[in-house]
Design brief:
This protein folds into two domains: 2-186, Rossmann fold; 190-313. Helix content is 46%, strand content 17%. The protein is built from 13 helices and twelve strands. The chain has an eight-stranded mixed beta sheet, sandwiched between helices. A four-stranded mixed beta sheet has the order 4-3-10-9. The longest helix has 21 residues, at 188-208.
């Protein structure tokens, strides 16, 4: 297949690499100022619990303008930019240029997939997915580490996809053939609704706590984040029909006194530095998602005061 990956950051590079390993012709859509850097290739580092494996990808194909995109016939276009970038003018031009390609939408906001469906020729072109990997530019600031893109694939986390059956099957098979676990599900929106509604307010709370994991469990920021997460879960359930009740036990602060130290010990990466680095870069997305929960909650007549309080407590970008 001929595949276009939009965005050559750490997430796009990892998906592109696995699609390339499966034998597909992978191109990256990037701004012209990044073309030489991306075309020179990527050095990736797969993070295992016992070892790190270096993976070199040379001679990467690059596209830098939407006119060039429109001249080609693409089988798949993978959207790996943030939710706020998805709503930009460049993304709008790109969506208008992709023809009948399958659009793989990986953004986390509740409204992202519908946003894309409304801007392509046919809604069935859109396959919705959920990012389950961790990836970042290495070394992280202030840390030692290999140069390149480091990534971790949680062993029990398959990347879920939903949409038109044949299009989903093609996406899943492409990733699996490249060595990444993936699966078809009935509806990614309902699969992702609960964990995303829990995580985003907690990320915001961590930012309010100045990215300090060690002090987060006893902080006012965590209590504020958990109150906001309770409201976000209710909004997500009302909006998508997802059953979010199983996440309610995680709304107790004492749970995080156990979970956070465990995560720090088990993950083969510096968790606090990663969270600070990555979610600082996508801070506009975090704020957009909180705004979505607040707006949808108000439309449904639901309480959003804790979400509003959390949003106000966040520092300006």
């Amino acid at each position: 297949m001929k595949i276009l990956v939009v965005g050559a950051g750490a997430v796009g590079a990892v998906y592109g690499w696995h699609l390339h390993r499966a034998g597909h012709e992978v191109h990256f859509f990037v701004k012209a100022k990044f073309a030489d850097t991306v075309s020179a290739g990527f050095t990736l580092h797969w993070l295992g619990h016992r070892a790190t494996q270096r993976q070199d990808w040379n001679g990467v194909r690059v596209v830098t303008d939407t006119a060039a995109v429109a001249r080609e016939r693409w089988d798949q276009v993978w959207l790996t930019m943030s939710s706020d970038a998805l709503r930009g003018e460049l993304a709008a031009q790109l969506l208008a240029a992709v023809g009948t390609a399958t659009l793989v939408c990986l953004q986390p906001d509740l409204e992202d997939a519908d946003y894309v469906r409304g801007r392509v020729g046919a809604p069935e072109q859109v396959v919705q997915g959920l990012i389950t990997l961790i990836s970042y530019q290495s070394p992280l600031p202030g840390m030692d580490g290999p140069d390149g893109i480091a990534y971790y694939l949680p062993p029990l986390a398959r990347t879920p996809f939903s949409g038109s059956l044949q299009r989903v099957a093609d996406v899943v098979e492409a990733l699996k053939a490249g060595g990444m676990s993936a699966s078809a599900v009935a509806n990614v929106a309902t699969v992702a609704a609960g964990p995303t509604a829990l995580m985003q307010p907690l990320i915001a709370a961590l930012e309010v706590n100045q990215w300090r994991l060690a002090t987060l469990p006893a902080s006012d920021a965590l209590r504020m984040g958990l109150a906001a997460a309770r409201e976000a879960l209710a909004v997500a359930q009302r909006t998508t029909g997802a059953r979010t009740g199983r996440f309610r036990p995680l709304l107790r602060p004492w749970i995080w006194r156990l979970l956070l130290p465990l995560a720090v010990r088990l993950l083969p990466l510096p968790l606090e530095r990663y969270l600070h680095y990555h979610f600082s870069k996508v801070g506009a997305q975090t704020r957009l998602m909180l705004a979505t929960y607040i707006r949808l909650g108000r439309q449904h007549g639901q309480d959003t005061q804790a979400l509003q309080n959390l949003r106000k407590a966040m520092p300006a970008l």
